[in-house]
Amino acid sequence: MPPKPRFLCSEKDDLIWQKLGEDSDAWYETIHTTDKCREVGNFMLKYKNAKPELMHAVVRGGYNVVYRLEFADGTSLIMRVPIKGLVAFPDEKVLNEVATMRYVAANTTIPVPRIYHYGSAAENPTGLGPFIIMDYIEHHQNMCRALLDPKRPVDDRPVLDPEIDQEKLEFLYSQMANILLQLSSLNSPRIGSLAQAQAQEAGLVSVERRSLALNMNELSVHTNMPRRFLPSQTYGTAREWYIALVDMHMAQLALQYNDAAEDDDDVRDNFVARKLFRRLADANNLWPDREYSGGDFKLFSQDLRPANVLIDEDLRVVGVIDWEFAYVAPAEFTCDPPWWLLLLEPESWSGGYTEWMKAYEPRLHTFLRVLEAEEKEMAAGDWASTPSLSRSMRRSWEERNWMVNYAVRGSWAFDFIWWKFLDERYFGPNDEQDHHARLHLLSADQKAAMDTLVASKAYERSHRMIFEWDEDSAATRVDELLAS
């Protein structure tokens, strides 16, 4: 039989998604009024002794809103606030981002905004939630605008211009390569988020808190997952973090009430995929020949992409923003080729992963060439990446190791990648690319847990609602699946 057809990306809970949109729209209507902008402007004035000239319109992004106060001398401050409801742990997010920005500023030449003040929701007199007040970086546009296809409809997701000038592409890629190289030099003995020292000195940061990865935010927001099912600690080995990540995939399958699976067989596919990946991670068999030691962890930002890099009219980088989901992660994450070379993720590409890879590979060759040049230039200045980042990225691409990391970082991207690319890599031929050929690998307890989950998901498909999990009922379901 032919392989089972699959969606490139699993569905999130449509009812929750709709409510999130309605709630965030309603919140936004209350926070961009003239009175609120005046209140915010007066608060920002406490942190810069200059003559105010203009309060700009509020800018709404994916996870934050930004207030900008421009001064008579041409400079500006911004106050950045997480969007209520779309950010699961806003106080924690702000603290992590401040520590990361100050650490990057102190230990690299990557340009980041200067921070004037920050605080928790309780410390914000405007009532808007946790905040960061920082410099507005003057720029011509973000790098994504310089790279995208000008013929693509404005409302479509951005895609790299297929006819982009090669010299322009190499110049922009080379600056991104330099940023990645500098980040790859920032090491830590543990996996987790950076925390600011009590003295608040820029360089005095360390891994003191759990990682706050982008997927953790999405799981909490889109499944109403109780906090106890997300990591709560730092980790000393990559194995521990991979196990934590795939356990979150299992919790997503268990606790996403609507749209988690198309039918009973889809539930079985998803369950078996998570169990098999967990087995590999637990046995440390994801990497037959690991290049990095267990304690080699590097600062990594899944959201580092051209849209968050600001450039001037000469295409030179003047700022890198949005560090909110950066954390110290296994070196393997850093050593994967960056997904953003085409600007669009593989699960969103017309034609799927295979067509994306065909379009991606020639751009990767260009990127690796300029990365090698940056490595040589930095090595001449007594800086070197050991082992070579370009060599590690090339190996990751050729051996498709990047797929393992891409799958483990995204709960809704996981299932397609597992069955189409990873299952046969680890467990041999599987013509139908589904769970049937792998049932013999499950124990009796695992099969029983799977059958219980299938019945639960069948009930949920016929009783659609926004379900609010309490800790006890969620624990009953998730713990049974993880323990089996």
UniProtKB/TrEMBL annotation:
Residues 60-331 form the Aminoglycoside phosphotransferase domain. It comes from the Eukaryota. InterPro entries: AGP_Transferase, Aminoglycoside_PTrfase, Kinase-like_dom_sf. SUPFAM superfamilies: Protein kinase-like (PK-like). Pfam families: APH (PF01636). PANTHER family: AMINOGLYCOSIDE PHOSPHOTRANSFERASE DOMAIN-CONTAINING PROTEIN (PTHR21310:SF37), AMINOGLYCOSIDE PHOSPHOTRANSFERASE-RELATED-RELATED (PTHR21310). This is Altered inheritance of mitochondria protein-like protein. The lineage of its organism: Eukaryota, Fungi, Dikarya, Ascomycota, Pezizomycotina.
